[in-house]
Write a structure and sequence with these properties.
- With about 325 residues, the protein is mainly α.
- The protein has two domains: about 240 residues, Rhopdopsin 7-helix transmembrane proteins, CATH 1.20.1070; about 80 residues, Arc Repressor Mutant, subunit A, CATH 1.10.10.10.
- About 80% of the residues lie in helices and about 0% in strands.
- α2 runs antiparallel to α3 and α6 packs antiparallel against α7.
- The longest helix has about 35 residues.
- The radius of gyration is 25 Å and the shape is elongated.
Length: about 325
């Protein structure tokens, strides 16, 4: 019964991980926003770490325990699997830091990138050397327990620092975003991330346990990656239009522009909006300031009586649908 429960939980956890990767890929393809690419990479890297560093080491510990392996052997193999997955964990949280910056139209500085990989690259090498040293010098049981405790707290510290750093930057820059709905969505996403990953950290001390405690940790790890993604998907569906109108028919756009008295520059901005670009990308594409883009968008919303991009693009699409509709009484 215990093995069946363990297997079911692992299967569900891996299914959750696969769902997160596929969903993030679908969102990236649908909306084509820069930060969604970072989110996709985060999901790929964090779930690959989950396979090696979480599922792999939990399964190895359970098998070795059932076969009566020594405590030292179980600890060594468990740390070896975690070591294999650690580079993916480092890459994953770097992508999370990038995601946090890009969501608020900013970029991660080169200095922070260099410092991040320098510190964690050194920590990765030190962890590998410690595993080798533990086997060469035949550590005692107490030394293995101490080593495992140090790693557990170091892992929790890495996740906590990356999470807090990314979210603090996210919350700090959110007030400058002019779209109220987007501000609200980003704050909700940030709180969801904080709660989900904090819950996973609470049970992280069970990572080196076999049986149901280890299974609980595996499930919490993979669930923490999916829950914020689901919340952000819901926000995107309400506040962001798919990047599906870059080739709006000339006739449709011309009639739309004429009907709502849209200026030539405002038309340029609308076409960029329909292409799924952020305000910053529009400014760079049209060689105008970010504030000018915001002013154009504000006037466009006033003229068309809409509140966000989704409503604007739906309005344009509705004009195209009306043009494509056959006149009454016509025969197919």
């Amino acid at each position: 019964m215990g093995n069946l429960f363990f297997g079911v939980v692992l299967a569900i956890s891996l299914g959750i991980g696969l769902t997160a990767v596929l969903l993030s890929h679908r969102l990236q393809r649908r909306y084509r926003l820069n930060y969604l690419t970072s989110y996709l990479y985060f999901q790929v890297f964090i779930n690959v770490f989950g396979i090696y560093g979480v599922v792999g080491q939990v399964i190895a510990r359970k098998i070795l325990t059932q076969r009566g392996a020594t405590f030292e052997t179980i600890e060594t193999i468990g740390h070896f699997f975690t070591f294999l997955g650690l580079p993916f964990l480092i890459l994953a949280w770097y992508m999370f830091l990038r995601l946090s910056e890009e969501m608020v139209d900013s970029n991660l500085s080169h200095k922070i990138t260099l410092a991040y990989f320098s510190v964690l690259g050194g920590a990765f090498l030190a962890y590998g050397l410690a595993i080798v040293w533990a086997n060469v010098s035949t550590w005692s049981r107490g030394q293995y327990i101490g080593f495992s405790s140090v790693f557990t707290y170091s892992y929790a510290a890495l996740v906590a620092v990356a999470l807090v750093s990314g979210l603090s930057e996210l919350f700090r820059r959110t007030p400058v975003i002019e779209d109220r709905n987007r501000r609200r969505a980003i704050r909700f996403f940030g709180m969801t991330c904080f709660l989900a990953y904090s819950a996973a950290l609470v049970v992280s001390p069970y990572a080196d346990k076999s049986g149901w405690p280890g299974a609980l940790y595996v499930l919490s790890f993979f669930s923490a990656n999916l829950i914020p993604l689901l919340s952000w998907r819901a926000s995107l569906s309400k506040s962001c239009a798919p990047a599906s109108l870059p080739m709006t028919p000339v006739g449709v756009m011309s009639r739309f522009v004429e009907e709502y008295k849209i200026s030539r520059r405002e038309e340029d901005v609308i076409r960029e909006l329909c292409a799924g670009k952020t305000n910053k990308e529009i400014a760079e594409s049209l060689f105008i300031s970010l504030q000018t883009v915001k002013d154009h968008i504000y006037r466009i919303y006033l003229k068309t009586d809409v509140n966000n991009r989704v409503q604007l693009i739906n309005l344009i699409q509705s004009r195209g649908s009306q043009d494509a509709r056959p006149p009454r009484g016509s025969r197919g």
